[in-house]
Amino acid sequence: MGFLDSEFTDGNIVITKAEDLLNWARLSSLWQVSFGLACCAIEMMATSASHYDFDRFGVIPRPSPRQADIIIISGTVTLKMATRIKRLYEQMPDPKYIISMGSCSNCGGPYWEHGYHVLKGVDRVIPVDVYVPGCPPRPEALLEGLLKLQEKIRNESMIKKTA
Amino acid sequence: MKQAEEILQILKANFPDSNLELKTDQPTEPILVASPLEIDKLSMFLRDSSELLFDSLMNLSGVDEIKANLLSVYYHLESTKLKHKITLKVSTDRNKPEVSTVTEVWKGADWHEREAYDLFGIIFLNHPDLRRILMPYDWDAGYPLRKDYENPEFYQGMKVPY
Q: Nearest-CA residue of chain A relative to B151?
């Protein structure tokens, strides 16, 4: 049973574990770094716009890594950009999460063999929580990826970080 | 509006010492082959001569002709006033690829030449700011679009091959 569901069954009193409360708070307002790389970023912006409305999951773009919880790597990660991404990630406060969006940031995508300038997967520089396949993924796929991340955060424990 | 043959005659009359040649044996537009160290003077004339007025450098690209041991630069010019076009080509030795810059003639050549330098290693003499433009500034593994280029195993601790 979800955290909020019990509110309506137990007469306005909710008894829960501190862990569940923290996880619920975290997964309900994932502020993402305002950061896009390539064509996937266009889909990410479409996901943020009114039709798909990322905001209904508490995802709002934050133009500073210091106030963000999640970074969506949306596009081709060049070697030149990889060092910058690493720096952005290091500037984010814990707990922080990463969604790798699209084939390029998952594994290099179409640049896997002849892309002399492309990092073959962003997980070579930062730890990825959820991989969203597609080239580029549709907004529905990115939303699914976010739901998967929320699922991971929901089951996190204070002792052991899983996401 | 002038045909490539007429443009060649005008150039020959004004640069009698230059070694100019028109290649028409390819299924493309005629290509005017010039010398790499004279291309700046030639370009200035092409731009300013009242019969030619090539005011626009549409494109500048590098080509690696490894079998002939040459690195070449192609210039696609257009006159927006007289509505004619010409393609220029210069070739240099692959071991010492030096071409005069045309940034003085067309400002837009600046970044095109930086790109040709970045990806082919062609040195543009007297260029105001010849740095890499696409690859990282500290890239020391060579020039990626050369035919004999091999990608490095690592860049700044990151594995490069798949």
A: A116
Residues of chain A scoring pLDDT < 70 = 1-10, 161-163
> How many Cβ atoms sit within 10 Å of the Cβ of residue A96?
19
ipTM of this model?
0.77
B161 has a chain A CB within 8 A of its CB: yes
Is-contact A77 A87, C-beta < 8 A? Answer: no
**What's the pLDDT tens digit per position in B138-160?**
998 899 999 999 999 999 999 99
Could you tell me the CA-to-CA distances from A66 to A87, A91, A94, A95, B69 in Å, in that order?
Answer: 11, 6, 10, 11, 52
Question: Any idea which residue has 């290509």 for tokens?
Answer: B31
Which one-letter amino acid corresponds to residue A63?
P
pTM, entire model: 0.83
Give the β-pairing of A32-33 and A61-62.
Answer: parallel
Instruction: Tell me the pLDDT of chain B averaged across its residues.
Output: 92
pLDDT score at A67: 94
β-bridge partners, A160: none
Angle at A46 between CA A45 and CA A51, to 5 degrees: 135
Contact (CB<8Å) B162/A79 = no
